[in-house]
Amino acid sequence: MRQDRIFEALAARFGGLWRHADFRLLWASLTITHFGGQFTLLALPLAAALLLNASPLQMGILTAFEALPFALFGLFAGVLVDRSRKLPLIIAADVARGAALMLIPCAAWLGFLSMPMLYAVAFLAGTGGVVGWAAYQVLMTERVGRENLIEANAKIALSESGAQLIGPGIAGVAIQWLTAPVAILFDALSFFASAWLLRGIAPSDRDRPRRAADGSSIWREIADGLRSIWHNEVLRSIAWSVALWNLLRHMYMAIVILYATRVLELSAGAIGAAWMGGGVGCIAASAIATRVNRRHGMGSVMLGGLFLTGLAWGLIGLVRAGSVATPLGLAFGIFAFDLGGTLFFINYLTLRQALTPDHLLGRVTSTMIFLTVAIAPLGSLLGGALGGWIGLRQTIWIIAGCGILLGLLLIRVSPLPGLRRLP
Hints:
This protein has helices spanning 2-14, 21-51, 56-83, 86-110, 115-144, 149-178, 180-198, 218-230, 233-263, 268-296, 298-318, 326-354, 361-373, 376-390, 392-413. It is an all-alpha fold. It has one domain: Up-down Bundle (Growth Hormone, Chain: A), CATH 1.20.1250. The protein is globular, with a radius of gyration of 21 Å. The model has no long low-confidence stretch (mean pLDDT 83).
């Protein structure tokens, strides 16, 4: 097959995990869905803003519905992942998300697209993401081994960077020419393609369910995941710091598309082009992560990346409207945000996977996702409410100030600055 020849060429030229068949298919699956995700990332809020004339509060509610499944089902998803074979779970989650997204173009074509419809799809797609993303990370750890996690996460970050570099531009043009609902159709098809591709991964004993030998209840297994995080100083510190950062990030996500369309007066194509700056930031972070970790230490790089995201929000809030430089200014702010965020999350994912025993991987992964995203819906609602009350630009400035203060606080109180290398 053509894809096999491509992977063989990569393996021969670059070596490393490119020689690992399971990793290649997992990487290809994630890459496809990352590219598809760029369409929905822009098209879903643009459908609300441009087609349905959504208010800032309605945009906040939409973003909250995307994050709500992580708060409602995150803890249970971890137990489900540990008690199930991961590969069928990932395939089922991909098919479910594709089917949910298909509802939007169908509703648009039939003439009953509405904000409640967008809320429902955002919630259903988010529910698939809760299960699918946790299962992906556990399966990746089981198949490539802990000693290869940094390389695996860097390669995945690089593919996501490529998607962010190319995808938003294509998505912006597709939205402008074909409308947002049609653009979302491409994301739905990407999930179906991912599910088909994953069928090529052979079953393995390493993917076996890991239900507790003592027949523990679901609540006992959830408690085990929470206890494992609580008794690890590094994971505990990361959990509360990322939770606060996600509160701010969802405040920003709730209003940034409205800010770009109504304050900066940018078209869908210009917004897509500006969002490509995030891809450049991710690629830069992936390229320098190993080197800066070696020089400055994992913990310092993580906190430096988090601090940089606060500065980036400030840059985005300073962009002026009505100029040829407006898209460039927005693109530079998004570049800085994704550079800092990717430096943080490459190390965060690696630490979380490396510090967790095999039998707890599913529970700790989902529990960390729950702890770090549980208050995000409140951030979305707060961002939407503030945007409607005091203005979109003023709300972004508040988010930026809080992000900078959070970075300075963590430098003082977090154990991460003392963490030089992977334990």
